Amino acid sequence: MRRPILAALLGAVLAPAGAAAQFECKVAPSSPEAKMLAWYAGPLAFAALGPAARLPFGAVVLGGDLTYVPSPPSSARKSSGTCFPTPKSEHTGLAPVFPRPRIIVGLGGGLTLEGMYLPPVTVADATPNMGSVALGWVGPLGSAAGGLLLSLRAHATFGQVQGPIVCPKDAIQQANLAQPCWGSTPSKDTYRPNIIGGEVAVATSTGRLNAYGGLGYASLTPRFQVDFTFQDGKKDRTKVRIDVTRVSIFGGLGYALTKSVELTAQLYSVPEDATTARAGLSWRLR
User: Which CATH architecture has domain 40-76+93-284?
Assistant: First the structure.
């Protein structure tokens, strides 16, 4: 028997005490483990903040959004036994929301550069150290009088989130070495979303309220590493990896409160995984 791992991500089990796991397991794209890792990569994707805007050179926009992180289905919470011999169901879940600040800079010619960074500040036992970048182009679609804008955008998300995902404080026990989390210190596990993708969207641009919608495609290579020390001092450093691609569909609204401040709302769906919602705010400095 192996100990449960990825309690918040994978439904699986680890090596027994005295035999520290140090291996890497690549799971099939159709496996529950793959769906679990891909599920959380979707809400972390660096999607557009709102309807496309053609910014002049030197324009600066500060903004941020809050993304809802839905819980995965029970079918994704049960391990397949690919990496671990005993499939096990888990009631899993990450934080219910994901905050994301960002800055957008106009490069001229319809080009924009976006950036986001979450510093390693621990909140609710989770420590992010993650960033995203995006390069976009916005131009008129057909006749400029039609008020439609076409946007093309490439984006990437990198970095990690660390925390006691496998064995949080309330799961630690010293009573039975055959049971999960036999130790005295919570685990410090690492999840890396590793997302590279592109989007195409169309937006209106004729009034204070504008709509947009589009399609996206992304390469996901999430990685998860356990870091748990057993009561006897041995460590579990199991790694789980997947390499998959995903198509996304998104749409939303932007409402201009003033000439420089806009509220945004978005539905973002990865048909194979999660559908999420985002709410945002942007402020054009110049």
Answer: Beta Barrel (2.40)
